[in-house]
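Re: [help] complex structure
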Amino acid sequence: MKNKIVVMASGEGTTFQEIYQACSYGRINAEVVALISDRLDSGAVVKAGKLNVPVIHYSLTKKEIIIRELEKLKPDLIVLAGFLKILPEEFIDNFAGKIVNTHPSLLPCFGGKGMYGINVQHAVLKSGTKVTGCTIHLVDKDVDHGPIIAQETVPVLSTDTPESLQIRVHSVELGLYVDAISTLLKFDHTIVGNRVKFLNQFSL
Amino acid sequence: MKNKIVVMASGEGTTFQEIYQACSYGRINAEVVALISDRLDSGAVVKAGKLNVPVIHYSLTKKEIIIRELEKLKPDLIVLAGFLKILPEEFIDNFAGKIVNTHPSLLPCFGGKGMYGINVQHAVLKSGTKVTGCTIHLVDKDVDHGPIIAQETVPVLSTDTPESLQIRVHSVELGLYVDAISTLLKFDHTIVGNRVKFLNQFSL
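Output below.
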């Protein structure tokens, strides 16, 4: 049976589209049953319209309604794909262990408050580090903190600008995210030492 | 002509010995002209005795004497090799751009106050990160902050203990440190965006 995925996005919807396609091609054994967005004028919402994916509007005042909607949909996984609002505790509690996020750095480095989008790459370049990367992790109550599922490194070149680095990290991140989602849905897992451990010993 | 290196160490002297040997074998084009240690009972001091390397005792009360001694020796590079005391500003000013250090993580992550020795590896394992490494950098006034010369990654295994991780990082670190010292002495360099840039375009 196919799994059910809900994607949450605020921006252009590049990651949303990549995940949708990976589902279509069978790389992820799932169907995207809804897109949740806090911005109805976002690229993600436009893309969802074209792909006939139902859109749910996110706002804090409708928190209870959204949680009820999601409980009806019974998603196997809620995938954050550039969703810029911080999720309320109640939301995270309701779907504990079922919300997954991506971050464009090697967490715990360059994570936390203010560290999103191009800000991350500005900070990476300022530090002089030669190695960065991306992190796929489960969401817990602390920002950019939950159990790590997968990481991949990306070299920081001396010629990099924040923008060029962002593009290179993002291209690695998309593939890693799709792999992580597919693996999470396929294999039982548990959490050991702030890491997701797959019970079949398979390791991302 | 051979360069002159002064090594500073507080502990067992593994790194001191590795650098001494790399100089003997010609991997580093230099001679170790002195070991500075804050602990006269340390393994490093014992090793220096056996190798006939003069030892200078470091203590804050003798700060001026040490600086004067060093100004006489005119070292091309001062190599911190597990030296646990924080250097006073006056010392760093006197040898600006000539003090090099190694740190057993991918700085800026897992650096700063309290982050030395096994503490670093405890923090790395607690974070759940799958990638760590080591960093060779020039010393400036902020702890674990100066311009980065070289970094290398080391995977964090799910079976790692702080001790096993420390051993694996250290073995990578030794080779990288020797390469970085050799390159620093061989090629002109400048500092661009908190990185050491070698002017012949060679990049570590």
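The interface with chain A takes residues 106-109, 125-131, 133, 147-148, 150-151, 153, 158, 192-195, 197, 203 of chain B (CB under 8 Å).
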